[in-house]
Amino acid sequence: MGTWDTSPFGNDTAADFANALDDAEPEAREALIRGVLIRTIDATGYLTEAEEAVAAAALIAAQCPGGEPVEVSYGPETPMPVFPSDLRALADEALARIASHEDGPASNWVDPEDWKQWRAILTRLRAVLAPPPPSIALFDVQP
Fold first, then answer.
1. Above 80 in pLDDT, residue 71?
2. What's the 3-state SS for the chain?
3. pLDDT at 52
4. Spatial distance between the Cα atoms of 13 and 3, rounded to a whole number of angstroms
5. What would the mean pLDDT of 94-103 be, rounded to a whole number?
6. Closest Cα partner for 51 from 114, 123, 125, 104?
7. Contact 9, 54 (CB under 8 A)
8. Are 101 and 107 spatial neighbours (Cβ–Cβ below 8 Å)?
9. Residues 70, 18: contact at Cβ < 8 Å?
10. CA–CA separation, 71 vs 121, rounded Å?
11. Which residue, among 85, 101, 4, has the nearest Cα to 53 in the 3D structure?
12. What average pLDDT does range 137-143 have in this prediction?
């Protein structure tokens, strides 16, 4: 894997995923993203699609309140569809799996500072993707 940056699209695999999204029909993009997230969540052993899952999570987070736009230099050039809200939970679960997997992408970082920056990016993405807590009215006050 060629990595030049700690950003979600800062590696060859994620850049190739962006190209695949650009080449896909607009209605197929959600399925590509959903598929890579589910395969990452369900994977046993090495997480072969972790880089793509991080990129997919960044695309979903970009559409959430507080989300940051995806870098245009390496991310998809074509606009993404509006993703359904259930993808947020899948993306968060995939990122949790990636962050906690000892043999996954976390083990690829040689420079400890790069590893810390990459982990901070995952943490920020997860904070944006986490669904807001439910608001439950404790009691109804009538004047």
1. no
2. CCECCCCCCCEHHHHHHHHHHHHCCHHHHHHHHHHHHHHHHHCCCCCCCHHHHHHHHHHHHCCCCCCCCCCCCCCCCCCCCCCCCHHHHHHHHHHHHHHHCCCCHHHHCCCHHHHHHHHHHHHHHHHHHCCCCCCCCCCCCCC
3. 96
4. 9
5. 84
6. 104
7. no
8. no
9. no
10. 13
11. 101
12. 57
pTM of the complete model: 0.86
30 falls in which pLDDT band (50, 70, 90)? very high
Distance CA 35, CA 3 (A): 23
Residue 18 near residue 55, CB atoms below 8 Å:
yes
Query: Distance between CA atoms of 64 and 4, rounded to whole angstroms?
Result: 26
Find residue 3's DSSP bridge partners: 11
Give percent of the chain above pLDDT 70.
Answer: 85
User: Taking the CA atoms of the chain, what radius of gyration do you get in angstroms?
Assistant: 16
Placement of tokens 């979903």 in the chain: 60
What average pLDDT does the segment 10-38 reach? 95
